[in-house]
Amino acid sequence: MSASRLFRAACTAGLTASILAGPARADVTNRTYVNSNTYDYRITYMTDIDQKRTGLGGNGAMYCVPTACFNLFAYAANHGFPVGGLPPANYMSSGQYGYVTTWLDFIGDLMQTDAQDGTTCCVTDAYQSLVNGSLMKRTTKYITSEYTPGQATATQLACNGWIVSFTYGKYTNVGSLKGYPIYDRGGGHAVTLTRSYRWNGERIIRYRDPNNESSLTTQSGHSNKEYVPTTITGWIDGHGLRNMTKLFTDGGKLRLIDALHAIRPLYGIRFNNSDDAQGGGSIDILDPIPFEGSEDAMVPSIPISPFLSVYDVIIHPDGASGLMITKSIIVGTSSLLRTIDLSTGQMTTIPDAPTNLVRMDWSGKNRIYAFDTSGVLHYLTGEGSPVGTMPTIPTPSALAVDDANNAVWLVSVAQRKLVKLNADTLAVQLLLDIPTSVPMSGDADLIFDPNSGLPWMRTDASTTLYGIKPNSIAAPTIYSANLGTINSISMSDDRLYVGGSSGIKVYKPAVAAPGWTFDGTSPFNGLPGGSRLAMLRNSDNYDPKLHSGPQWQNLTTEELAEPSPDVLDCFADANDDGTVDAADLSILLGAWGGTDDVGDLNQDGTVDAADLAALLGAWGTCPR
């Protein structure tokens, strides 16, 4: 039985037989992402909390962002991940109403939500305070000149095991440039994704809208807003010419998706046979604790052609795919940067990326940093388009991104140098000679530990991991950690993952001094390691100069003006065709006696007579 199933009893206690009064559980029934034009995602039983309530400033009129976040936290709690200590419960029930209000007030305080202006500055800070465990990761992505959130990007995350809330902005056409309209933002609204579909020209999106005015003292039932989105192209509020997802238009004002917030249990990827003279091998997904319903969101193993050698593998900045540097074994060919679709295994060469790359790392700001065989460091967008380059020290061996300090670290084995660069300009900020007491030869790995603030490195010369602390007027201080055989290392915020001869071992920062202590509680211990290992990290691209101020205030109730009526959940409609009929009955009977989510309408862990009764009770056209 999965860990999340163990929470069923607590979530279902005291529930009525009514489907709409069911527990605040989630059920991923559709999960297919082919590309940005073809996808199908549906999640039911997602919590649908109302923001409008007594006990909040302004009766919660500006609390859409804390509420959309709470929907994700409640889902996580009911699947075995108590974000911020939130316990599992049916948060849609009347008995939880006051407790939910207290939580919304607490999250609002962390986000500095204002009763008049809403949430304009501190979403990332609140996520950092609450989603800060070693096994739960977060991403907050805003529109920038290097990243465009939209229906496709939200759906790709969701199909790869994330749960997603998004924000849409209200945009006004203020002119034109080079034949395209110019749009300025004037406030926004946060919602939670439940359905996203694009197939053969048909396109829909549904979301939980927290703005419900039916009562300030009671919780309304599960419902959605539903739209047929389109794509528009325009100059977006200082971020350049972008293709944006338009949800609807009201009074000439466009509502465009421009930010995403998502959480997911930790996962990683590994590769064996890297840098060998012969090609082949496989990229394997390490995902031991996914949300229930997303157990098979990613393929377990992706075979690599024997005609390809893999130089490096990392997780893509989008958090939903991978990146690798590959080279044909044919003499005279160049290495190429490729994306890896972790849900299908498909590999695609990035045509705009530079060739002859050797090693790389990713930034939470949706950037890629990589150096080539000539020792040139490349700064790329998440899509692989070049932004800047800089010749580095001779023969760089490894690199690591330090998001907290907006820096990139490089180590050179041959030159015994450690370099810190500005992540925006690639200008050198620090150049250190590594003392001869540190043995160095062959290949190297480098990670940055945000806890100690130190880069840590290993080379083929030793099994010891070395932390290097710069000093202003003296030689750097060296810390050492002997962790046994080290074939690969990766850092995931507050844990170090080491691939060795006995599989992966997980370490947490030592308390007394910079160093590492074995963490025997991690479910990743003992999983197979490899010569390349990459673990998911928290990420955000929030920039206060771009994503704060009056234009990022929340919309008032009058400004929202959503034209879509509330579309009630129809949990028994398994194929989502708008009718509970024989097709849905067939799906339920096919899952009879099982413990999977499909067919388990009352979410008690088993498909049985109670679910059949619920389906028959909902027979016919779904309520709209």
Main traits of this protein?
single chain; 624 residues; mainly beta; five-stranded mixed barrel; four-stranded antiparallel beta sheet; 38 strands; 39% strand; globular; disordered N terminus
What does this structure look like?
This protein has 624 residues and is mostly beta strands. 12% of the residues lie in helices and 39% in strands. The chain contains eight helices and 38 strands. Helix 2 packs across helix 3 and helix 7 (582-590) runs antiparallel to helix 8. Mean pLDDT is 90; it is low at 1-26.
Radius of gyration: 25 Å
Strand order of the largest sheet: 4-5-8-9-10
Mean pLDDT: 90
Q: Largest sheet at a glance?
A: 5 strands, mixed, barrel
Tell me, briefly, the overall form.
globular
The helical percent reads: 10-25%
Strand content: 35-45%
Sheet/helix structural class: mainly beta
Total number of helices: 8
By DSSP, the count of extended strands is 38
Low-pLDDT runs of 5+ residues are 1-26
The end-to-end distance, rounded to whole angstroms, is 36 Å
Topology, please?
Blueprint: H1 8-12, E1 27-35, E2 38-44, H2 64-77, H3 97-110, H4 123-130, E3 136-142, H5 151-159, E4 163-177, E5 180-199, E6 202-208, E7 223-227, E8 230-236, E9 241-250, E10 253-265, E11 268-271, E12 282-286, E13 301-303, E14 308-315, E15 322-328, E16 335-340, E17 347-349, E18 357-363, E19 367-372, E20 376-381, E21 386-391, E22 398-402, E23 407-412, E24 417-422, E25 428-433, E26 444-449, E27 454-459, E28 464-469, E29 477-482, E30 488-492, E31 495-500, E32 503-509, E33 516-518, E34 532-535, E35 539-540, H6 557-560, E36 567-568, E37 579-580, H7 582-590, H8 609-617, E38 620-621
Parallel strand pairs: 3-35, 5-8
Antiparallel strand pairs: 1-2, 2-5, 3-10, 4-5, 4-10, 5-6, 6-7, 7-36, 8-9, 9-10, 11-12, 11-34, 12-13, 14-15, 15-16, 16-17, 18-19, 19-20, 20-21, 22-23, 23-24, 24-25, 26-27, 27-28, 28-29, 30-31, 31-32, 32-33, 37-38
Helix pairs in contact: 2-3, 7-8
